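Good day; I would like, with your permission, to put a structural problem before you. A protein sequence and the structure tokens that stand for its backbone fold form the material at issue. The record follows directly beneath this note:
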Amino acid sequence: MKSKQPTVRATPTVTEPAKAAKKKAGSVEGPAPASAAPAGHADDAADLAPVVGGNLRRLRTKRGLSLERLSQLSGVSRAMLGQIELGQSAPTINVLWKIARALEVTFSALISTRTVSGALVLRTSDAKVLTSKDRSFSSRALFPFDEPRRVEFYELRLATGGLESADAHAPGTSENLVVTAGVVEIEVAGETHRLEAGDSILFEADSPHSYRNGGRGEAVMYLVMTYAEEVG
């Protein structure tokens, strides 16, 4: 999940051609599977929509990009970008990654609420959780967005049988991930690595990669995303 370029996670709506096996962009509507994100996350996505919309409009304008040009750069339809800017759609994680990559900003730059500086407690009940289209994958940011940084910290959850495919992040981005529950198969650079609870992995995330739940229950992971240059 960059700025993964990984709440997550999070939720991430765009009208791109559906790719069932890869859970690309789309809305978060529809019933969630029993092992997906708990009730209330749909409300989180709705609450996050105006935040993402405002940030997208600000960043796009700052870079002098039209909706049409940003659509060409990101692969996200112009109509969907417009809906996101108006706060009418909560984009999926993969869609946010595509937009962030096109704008050359971090994932968190799009979901930042511009909190004040100083000590900040991030309550679980207040967390904004981003999910995949079918809500089998979720990402929760465990850090504030108001200070320059090169590192971001996320909690990731993947339902039984779930598969989350991520596009390449910006050059120089790395992911350091530890599995705390369940079994996760991570494919990167053509190789598959099976991780069980307690196992960790470090890899360059500037190429496509994926996470698959290879166990019988929900998998829980914690991800540290490191960028080549300071962001925020």
